[in-house]
Every structure is written in C-alpha cells, then in structure tokens.
Specification:
There is one protein chain. It contains 6 helices and no strands. It is an all-alpha fold and about 180 residues long. Helix 1 packs across helix 6, helix 2 packs antiparallel against helix 5 and helix 4 runs antiparallel to helix 5. The longest helix has 30 residues. Pathway: Cofactor biosynthesis; ubiquinone biosynthesis.
Length: about 180
Amino acid sequence: MPGDLPRRDRLARIVRVDHAGEYGAKRIYEGQIAVMGKGRHGKTLRHMAEQELVHLEYFEKQLNRRRVRPTLLQPLWHVTGFLLGAGTAILGERAAMACTVAVEEVIEEHYESQLKHLGPEEQELSDSIRKFQAEEVEHRDIGLQNEAERAAGYPLLSAAIKAGTRAVIWVAERV
C-alpha cells in the first residue's frame, strides 16, 4: 500500500523497538528490585526480570543477525527505565505492581499489532514474540494479583505510564 514501509524497514523497526522495550523493562525491574528486592516481592520481581533478560538477549541477537542498529536513545531508556521502576517502588508495592500492569498491557497490544505484520517467512520471530507476549501477560496478571488496582491514584498512574510507554514505542521505532 502507498505509505507502507518496505518489508526490511518494517522488520528493522520491529526488532529495534522490541530490543528497546525489553531493555527498558529490564531497567524497570532493576529499579524495583533496588527498592523492594529484599521485601516480600523480591523473588517475584527477580523472576520477571529474568524473563525480560531472556527477551532482551533474543532481540540483541536479532539486531546483530539482521544488522539493525539499536535505538539511539538507549542511554535515555537506561536512566528513565530505572527511575520509573524505582520511583513507583518508592510509592509502594501496589504502585510498583501498577507500573507492571500498565506497561505490560501496552506491550501485549504492541506485540499483537506486530504479529499482524509478520508473514510465514518470519515464523521464528513470530513464535518468539508470541512466547514473550504470553510472559508479559503473566507479568500483568502477577501485578493484578498483587493489588495493582488498589494503588493510590491507580487510574491516573496507569494512564500516565501507558501514555509514556506508547510514546517511547513510537520514538524507539524511529530513532
């Protein structure tokens, strides 16, 4: 269709943004672990962080294999991801879980949208994204089970984090 990206460019965007997103997720969990790692949620946070690290390593390999440059804004994600994780953890356990829920809901939608653009020639990438999507849904569910929706100001906090996540996705695809 007119205005559609060529296949190679579309795939480069997918790999770039997913790498950036998984890097950001890793940093969010590192921030939360720095604040809450010794508390009752420490083991759960480490479990989710370990899964995000697997996702990140996969997309790092995809960047190299496909010769796609990472986002130029990775140093910014390094700082902001950690600050988002630590900041919500400082607000309390429920706020940290609200952060997880908000981010993972956007990522689930984002992955679903990407899957619609991947044809049979990208089956391995599609399968990996589906697996990672299921794990992101698991993280969301963990957040909900741990009273994310009872965080102070949940609707506002969730909306702000979702808007920020969507903005970061848009930028990371392009920059």
